[in-house]
Structures are given as structure tokens and as C-alpha cells.
Design goal:
With 183 residues, the chain is mostly helical. 75% of the residues lie in helices and 0% in strands. It is elongated, with a radius of gyration of 18 Å. It is found in: Endomembrane system.
Amino acid sequence: YFSDTGTKPPESGIFGFMINISALLAVITMYIRYLLVEKQNESSHFVRSSCNMFSLCIGLMGCIGMGIVATFQELAVPSVHDIGALVAFGSGVVYITLQSIISYKSCPQWNTYFVCHIRMAISVISCIAFIPMIVFASQISMTKIDWTPDEKDYTYHFLSAICEWTVAFGFIFFFLTFIRDFQ
């Protein structure tokens, strides 16, 4: 899993620090995106302000989940860590989906359809990967780091980890689509 990279010292300290920095950068990015949509919406009225605010709040919840993941390590407090991960990934998927919808509503004045299609594709892939990530992770009967293919639950762990990394990279690529908007 993503968290497996930071379960033992000194990596755990670096992992926690970097996740918190990433959460802070995500908060800044989401807030800038919120302000940008609000400003564009003043002249175009393409989305309700409450929808934009709701999207921001959902995104901020995901960042709080990231902070929980960073603070409560996978092996030390697994239940709290897992709740934080569920909040981070679940809220993140909802956030990028809402932002994709907002992007479509702003077309063609503030976004190109190409960018909207890319955002929606990333959202759909992330949503599709999120579901088996949860389903397979719930089938795992133990919390551990080092897995071998002959172990019980290895297949569930392997498939869940692939889906988790897919969702995580989906978030990164989605945020990269904001570059043009922020110019």
C-alpha cells in the first residue's frame, strides 16, 4: 500500500511529514480552484456557489483524512489509519468528480471540452478503482507489511494496492489539469 512506504522509522517520519506537506498543498490548490470558479461564476453563472463551496468542503475533508493517515501509522493504530485513508480517498474521489462536473458546466467559456473529458476520464477511473480497493481491502484478515505470493489474502492485498495506487495517481494527474486554469 501507499502507507507501507512509511511504517518503520526513519521512513515513517519522512512519510508523515511529506503527507502533511502534500495535504497542505492540496488545501491551497483546492482553495485557489474554489476562488477561481467563484470569480468566473460572477460573470457566467454556470454553477451555484453552494455547489462550489460543497466541493471545497469535501476536498478539505480529504485533506484532513490525509493528515490522519500521516499521524496514525498503519501498524501502530490500524483502525484510525484506515478510517483516515477511507476519508482521504473517498472524499478525494467525490471532489474530483464534482470538479469535473463544474468544469463541464463552465464550457466552453472557461474550459475546453478536451480538458473536461480528461478530467472526467480521470474521475471515472478513480471511482472505478476506489470500489475494488475497498472491497479487496475489507477481505484482508491481517495488517502487515511484507507479503509473499503464497500467503493467505495476498491476492486481495495485491489487487487492493494496485487500485489504491491508481486512485492516488488519479488525484495527482487531476490536479495537474489545473495548471492551465491557474495561468
